[in-house]
Design a protein that fits this description.
The protein is α+β, with helices and mostly antiparallel strands. The chain has helices at 96-100, 115-118, 121-131, 135-149, 155-166, 173-180, 184-194, 199-217, 223-229, 235-246, 250-258; strands at residues 10-12, 17-22, 32-40, 45-49, 55-60, 65-69, 76-80, 84-91, 112-113.
Length: 266
Amino acid sequence: MTAPRTTTSALALDDHAILAVYEVAPQLGDFVHAYWTLSVETPPARVRIIPDGQVDIVFDVDRAEAHVGGAPNAAFEVTHERPTHLLGATLLPGAAAAFLDVPAGSLTVDWQPLAAIIGPMANELEERVAGAPDLVARLATLETFLLSRLRRTDARVDRAVRAIEESDGRVGIERLGPACGASARNLSRLFHEWVGLPPKRFARIVRAQAALRRLADAAPRDLAALAAELGFSDHAHFTREVQALLGGAPSSLAETFKHRSDSFKR
């Protein structure tokens, strides 16, 4: 199975890290990007995390631990120094607070214990996931938990996120708030609560991700023409922005992703 969206979230930098992606139930499709697994049998293994505006609930199956990772605002790398088996659920931008009942802006990129966020029920969930006999049972346990926790999201944030994504990050942030039913100041506050990133930063990430998709999914592109298509001032601006947000030059990142179909999460 494959994820229903094309956002790229991570890159396995060597063959020791095996990533896989799994679809979610239709009832969760507007809230959860995908489930994913990471297996490292022969450490060390390096993974580059690429910002996507999303929040992760992550289970370390071997240690029976559950964590939450907030939305990163720039790329970084993780090295797994021990055999590792992770199971994760990636929550779409604006959905995290609906499941976790805390502002997305309070979540850190460094993993926090799920129990510190939702209380003792996390401990029971950790044991059930770790004790499940196979991946199908673990995914079913995780999905049942998410369905039981699902709450309403904020319609204003949903409209703003959709507008940013549909424009590939090129929407005018100053006009976005009023168009979505919020003042500019309120939109910033709402994004802190529901997305965990300022709207302008989120739009920059969406635009950089759009560039990467075009480069990775199509025939070789003229970078200057692509920069103009996505609203960058010039080729140099395009390269600097992608390098700053995604951790590599556009052409080298695209080439790497083309040759590593297992790339998704840490």
